[in-house]
Amino acid sequence: MVKISALASLPFLVSTLLVVPSISQADIQAVSCLVGPSKSATLSSGVPGLLETIDVQRGEEVEREQVLFSLNSNVEEASLALESARVAFAQRTLQRNQRLIERGILSESERDEMDTELSIARLQADLAEARIADRIIQAPFPGIISSLESEEGEYIDNTPVMQLVQIDPLELELVLPLSAFGRFSVGDVIDIELVEPVGESMPAEITSIDRFIDPSSGTFVIYLALNNTDNVIPPGINCRLPTSA
């Protein structure tokens, strides 16, 4: 690779990078175009434990915050019951001594001690509830379960359990030659031709454009969002720019 130093070469570089042949969109030939999900997440648990239930099946459509799977929480539920009992006891102790407090028979330090014990018991109960919630995994976004990686009864520790993908909207990855650089802008809506089994052209909105050229191939990538309300367009198919404007 030839390196041209600093300021002396700047005009040459500017003219080389910014002068793009004037061509119509019909003349642009995409190097490749692939339809994929707009989001994809491999779901696991933040805490280790026994995988007790898987509440969905592969291919099932799920809503945001829908329960997907849960770990055994017998120990955590017992801890919550214990802390809840401590909260109830601290409340009864405070209630029994309320008249003594109002009459000034109990000192401020004694009253403060009872208040503190109740507050600590409540915090411990909240902590126990949070630990139970950590063992119940919900969908971070609406989508479709594309695969199941674990089975009920397995012990998991940062182990993939399932894959969740969002296919509405879909994301299109359009690889274009250098000659098309600067021809498109974020927010533009262009027609994209989808191959079989769809076999038709649909409008897609440009969401982002790579600002760097791949020097080895002389290409750059444009990403587009394609509505797929009824989930009829399968991810994984190819696409292309229409041959006519």
UniProtKB/TrEMBL annotation:
Q: Give the species this sequence originates from.
A: Vreelandella andesensis
Keyword Signal tagged: yes
Could you tell me which InterPro entries the record lists for this protein?
A: RND_pump_MFP
Query: Which family would the database say this protein is a member of?
Result: Belongs to the membrane fusion protein (MFP) (TC 8.A.1) family.
Q: Name one GO molecular function term.
A: efflux transmembrane transporter activity
What the entry lists under PANTHER family is as follows:
MULTIDRUG RESISTANCE PROTEIN MDTA (PTHR30469)
Per the record, what is one GO cellular component?
Answer: efflux pump complex
Residues crossing the lipid bilayer are none
Q: Where is the signal peptide?
A: 1-26
Keywords in alphabetical order, please. Answer: Signal
Please verify whether the record's keywords include Signal. Answer: yes
Name the chain's protein: Efflux RND transporter periplasmic adaptor subunit
